Amino acid sequence: MAPPRPCRGVLSASSTTATPRARAPRGESRLQRHLQGAYRFDYSDTDQWPDTPICRARTILPFLAPYVTHDRDAPVSVDAPTFERSRTLGHSFTLTWDVNDTNTLKSITAYRQLRWNDLLDLDGSPLPVAHTARSTGGRDWSYNAASQELQLVGHTERFNYVGGLYYFKDSGFTYGPQNFFFNTFNFESDYGYGTKAWAAYGQADYKVTDAWTVTGGVRYTREKKELERYLGVRFDLTSPFFALTPLGTTAEHTFSATTPVLIVSYKFSDTVNAYAKYSQGFKSGGFNGEYSEVPSDFTNPAIVSATIANNIAESRTPFRPEKLKSYELGLKTSFADGRATVNVAAFENKTDDMQLSIFTAAGAAGSIIRNAGKATTRGVEIEATWAPSDALRLQASYGYLDAKYDRFMDAGVNEADNRAMIHAPKNTINLLADARIVRTALGDLRGTLDYSWTDDYYTYPYQLASSGPNYNPLRAIAGDTRVKSYGC
Fold it and tell me: Range of 34's domain?
């Protein structure tokens, strides 16, 4: 057969058996009709320099006072040749086989590779206070991931169903130099990690009557996480590193969960549908590869030994999976011959062992995951669209959120009433108008006006005050030109 022809980055091809065409024309034609493949490839190469320092607004260090300003940065101060470089490579191949008129088998294969290097000056001054540098460059991060999925989709007169198997594998390693206070504290914070995950899932819709439909599904997930860790410190640029987390510190743990879903929907008419949904979710546990603790007194062998033992124990102790139970009621409507829709949903989420990312500076800077406890999130979402004509489309949405911790264990004490739920604004609003301004033989000129409002919210669970000012952007878009304004 003729070789496949690429088109716009997608490679589509028909496949046949090895039987010569003259001997099996009928079988070949059938396979060509029902077997289809699509290949995709992407590559990106980014090189940015120099980077603007990120800590410029205030300082408690008197020798940095001359470099502090609240004005917009024009000149900036750095003491290292800063840069950021990234290389990303991705492949995917999807093979679809129409087994018969009611069943389709699909294979989805994907691979992604990422390489990242940077050297950052974090203090915003010409003094060597905080940066990520080593003699061979800066930080270096490499990552690879591969996945394979087999999926069967089919239907009968009253059933729609999907089932599949999924496999995922990834690995990565980070070399993380950190230098502080005129190179008197130099850290080598390195960690590697890997995941092997398997999953099996199935879901089916059963049409009980013309009005009632019941959907049930279940997924079993099993993940194996691995970690290797090294943390070293030295007090100048020439001495050897002293290991605070020794080479050979490794850990592994397997997490698994079975998560169901159940949906009951009722069709009042062709334009009104209501549903009730219950589902469970699962976010796997893992290891804190960046945990770093430094002895309070390097001259005391007992303190040094205890710090090393704690670093090893923290690196090897996994944080627990986050589990979710979700309840939802919804109503979907359309009217005006399909030109208008109004959708309403109310939900409640119960989270157990919520995972929180916490920045630490007890030695080398890093972020670790802690299980906070239990949380409840309730809310309402309303979305409406209206197209009064082919040239104009209007859209509005509103969200209300009430989120709180039911239990937040900190040093053995329940601090739920004193901890802030992060990234949980109480009110969000979005308004959008999209209009065709003029139509010509060459195409349409359209304009879009988009307004968004988000209440203030917390970004860190230990915050005493919420973030501000409120985010209120108004964006006017015409063609490829965007104008943004920000207000309080």
Answer: 1-126
